[in-house]
Design a protein that fits this description.
With 378 residues, this protein is an alpha/beta fold. It is built from 12 helices and 14 strands.
Length: 378
Amino acid sequence: MKLHAWFAAALLAVSAAAQAQAPIRIGAFLSVTGPAAFLGDPEQKTLELYVERLNAAGGVLGRKLELVSYDSGGDAEKARTFAKRLIEQDRVDVIVGGSTTGETMAVVPLVEAAGLPFISLAGAVVIVEPVKKWVFKTPHTDRMACDKIFVDMKARGASKVALISGSGGFDKSMRGECLKVAKNHGINIVADETYGAGDTDMTAQLTKIKNAAGVQAVLNAGFGQGPAIVTKNYKQLGIGVPLYQSHGVASKQYIQLAGDAAEGVRLPAAALLVAESLPDSDPQKKVVVSYKQAYEARFKQDVSTFGGHAYDGLMLAVEAMKNAGSTDKAKVRDALESIRGYMGTAGVVNMSAQDHMGLDLTAFRMLQVRKGDWALAK
């Protein structure tokens, strides 16, 4: 009997040791290919790079990390299928992913039902408002972008503003948020035009805006190739008022697509795009310069804020696990909600039960395209 009890205890000990050494599984579904590849490609590369670096440094809680990632191609239905697989078959400990708002919102019901921490990399405010128990996000919201842009417009003497926006989930959400908050800033929307996902010329919409009475500035709520086309058509039409874009185009790719027409365009974005230009006294400089240098050295391509969102998502998940001392999903969720003072590529994150993003307007920098590159706006 004693021998049997000893043997059972030994088996339990071996099982516990094996469990302790099992990798921590980080799930992801990202738009690595397709129309939103400019988001998903740097996100995927960032997760691969930093899982590798974390493992080289000893892992987390004494365990290695394992990245389980799928390419959703920006398709919401594929995102649902992959999220279901991550939850039920891959049995991941946390999901860091969802390049677009559409993909993210398609997955929200699944992670809520499963009780699995999910850190989205998409922009729309609807992801975290109203607060969902298991859902967090890293990028600044579209509403914050509207607020930051309108503050800048007013400071520069513009109060009559035209909107032009795309037809995607982020575009529609940002347009709606800008319409909601405009009056808070004394902004009068005097024109409101839209374009389709496949449109290759926005001259007609921009001509209406050019002819609208008293327009002092124009805001393009959108991401992908649409804003670059808008920018080119804007210059061709000789519209002489400032053009603002959203943080949805906060990568060098937008400047490359728009060419010379992008000169002078203003937008709110994370400090990552101007990392080396920050003063040494800026507490964010060390984080963004370190990430930028690591990413660009490894992949030989310009850093984007989108990869930064993935860096923040992974590091927040890791910090939550360390703080929880466990990968228990409920404990990790609670630890995520309790994170304060995390300095990431997007800014300082202070989560709470009422705020599952944790950023305020100070996390945004107003940037301007100057001589074919990003610069802090003057």
